[in-house]
Amino acid sequence: MSKETSLETMDLTKPKRSPRFGLWVYVFLGLALNAIIWGGALTYLKKAKPKFVSKMAIILPGGNVGANVNLPSIGQASSSSTAASGGSSLDPRANYQYILNDEPVLEEAAKLLNIKTSELGKPKSKLIDNTSILQVEIEGPSAEEAQERGFALYNTLMAKVSKLRKDEIARRDDGTQATLDMAKIKLAESQKKLAAYKSRSGLSTSDQVKEVAVSLEQLRKQRAEMLAQDILISDRLQQLSNSLGLSVDEASAAFTLQSDPIYQQNLRDFSESSATLTTLSSKWGENHPNVVREAARQKNAGNAISDRASFLLNRPLSLQELARINLNVTGSAGKESLYRDLVAVQAEQSGIAGQAEELGRQIENFDDRLRDLTQKQLELDRLQRDAQVAEAVFASSLAKIDLSKSDIFTAYPLAQLVSPPSLADEPASPQPRLVLAGAFVGSLFVSTGVFLLWKRKAMEQKRQQEVEIAEVAELPTLRAIPNSDRSKTGQSR
Question: What is the predicted pLDDT for the residue at 155?
């Protein structure tokens, strides 16, 4: 019994130990992981091919200057370009960025370099905020090759943009050319109609109507002046007639007779015959042959005077009336002066009356011509307006084509290489410092992790040990119970 009791006591007092990893296991694990990290880093540095990066910057300057052409008396044509910075919804730099990464552009650049497109790779581009700059990076196996790839990419980009500009101008010209051809046909038709109407109507310009109107007004003004002079001369003629005791009609008849040479010759014959008859009558009687012959001569001369006066004045006049209106009768010096003035005034009045009559006929002719030209001017103005509109459309379309050819940066703004492809001093990858720093940080993290893992395992083992010791500490209470009681207790169980 004592032997059994001692063995039982020994089993109860000896703590139970759970298996655990030793410290060297964690040390080996940490060394293995660090070896993997550093081995991979060193292998990468040794095996990786170096890559050099060439950087360049492309700028899109401010908006292009627009053009505005004014054509006097025809119209105007204008051309303007979109600003290079674009608007809030459109940025030309994004278009250039897309073209730069387009597969055909990359293939053309690779063809210039005699390499495959896969070897060239795709460039990295970045839009600088608040600027019109596009920054581009391209990789290469060496600094020189990376720089060459940058220049090749830029040249290919410019060639592509230039081709797109030409296509844009060609499409724009096609539409404008159709408009120009149509405008040219309309212009030819309108000019043909205008020329035919000018030839048919005799009205070539609107200035002709103005000239006729001005001439008509001048003639009316001259006629008004003539009529005013005629009134003044008529008044003066009336005054002279009153002074001479003759009416204006009688004075006019006297002037008519005075200007007729036949009447004046007959009048001289009658005067001579009358004078001879008076002389003969004083010597001989009425029945004397000479007196009878001279009396017959006087009678014939009187009849000739009456007939000629009736013919000139369109009315019969007696010798007494003719004697009263005879201007050849001499009197006082004042009366002779009045006769001379009467003759001069009558001649002046006749001239003014003739001029006024002629002006009246001219005014009537010009008035008819003005009415005719005014009606024709309406049609001429309409045809000229149609021709002017057609000319304006044609000239504007032609100017627009010329301006569009000179304005080649409307759709694709001008791009300039503000910073040429750079020549890298050192490779962009691999970077030994960065790789070693990364390996060091990774090694530090791995070592810390393994240490914490070992620490956690050690703490768990320590807690388990403490639990086992606490269980062993309860064994003295069991020893204090007698063996008989323990046996009873065991039997009862």
Answer: 92
Tens-digit pLDDT profile for residues 304-314 = 888 888 888 88
Lowest mean pLDDT segment, chosen from 2-6, 273-277, 459-463:
2-6
Kindly tell me if the per-residue pLDDT of 84 is higher than 60. no
Q: Are 253 and 372 in contact (CB under 8 A)?
A: no
- The answer to whether 139 touches 53, Cβ cutoff 8 Å, is yes
* Residues facing residue 69 across a β-bridge: 77
Q: Token pair for residue 194? A: 């205008």
